[in-house]
Amino acid sequence: MLLRLLKYLLGSVLDEPGRVQISRVETTKIDLFYLTAARGDLGRLLGRGGRTVEAIRQVMNAAAAGQGKEAILDVLEEQSAPSRPRNRSRRARPAGPKTLTAKDVRQR
Question: What CATH homologous superfamily does 2-77 map to?
């Protein structure tokens, strides 16, 4: 029931809810849901200041409490394919500011 509720809530929030992967770990007292969302959907899922995902968590916990359980919702970012390394110039970079050590300070 909780998984169906989560899918329903995500369907009303996201443009493409089919792209979100849901992994579930179920115990006698806790249902743990891991959501893996694409970077574009992540903003819509989290909402301003995390309000949207927090509202989903509250609804899930209210439904889980009716079953004598607790629902935990964890949102993960989808790992993108590794990009090719850029062709970097072999020129030496100028040295940045030197960090002073205690020894440098005593010598001054």
Answer: K homology (KH) domain (3.30.300.20)
pLDDT at 68: 93
pLDDT single digits (tens) 30-55: 999 998 887 777 888 888 888 889 99
DSSP state of 27: -
For the chain, how big is the Rg over CA atoms in Å? 23
Residue range 71-83: mean pLDDT, rounded: 73
In the structure encoding, which two tokens stand for residue 49, read together? 């200041």
- Cβ–Cβ under 8 Å, residues 40 and 2: no
State both tokens at 84: 């090719």
